[in-house]
């Protein structure tokens, strides 16, 4: 039997995937800042994700992508 599934647009899938990737990164030395839970090598000050000519909007710890 052939099963057909409708695909999703990359713009819908990538923001959630990018969050998972950012959270999965590990560093020998990492830190948290303020009251946030995310650990990273340095404080995240800005985010940018571009697909073609479109900015992908997502946020992590109240920091919105540009």
Query: Which secondary-structure class do the elements indicate?
Result: alpha+beta
What's the count of strands?
A: 4
Distance between the termini: 44 Å
Low-confidence stretches: none
Protein name: glycine--tRNA ligase
EC number: 6.1.1.14
GO molecular function, one term: glycine-tRNA ligase activity
Family: Belongs to the class-II aminoacyl-tRNA synthetase family.
Mind explaining what this structure looks like?
The chain is of the alpha+beta class. It has one domain. Helices cover 23% and strands 12% of the residues. It has one helix and four strands, in the order H-E-E-E-E. The strands form two sheets. The chain has a two-stranded antiparallel sheet with strand order 1-2. A two-stranded antiparallel sheet has the order 3-4. A hairpin with a 2-residue loop joins strand 3 (59-60) and strand 4. The longest helix is centred in the N-terminal third of the chain and has 15 residues, at 10-24.
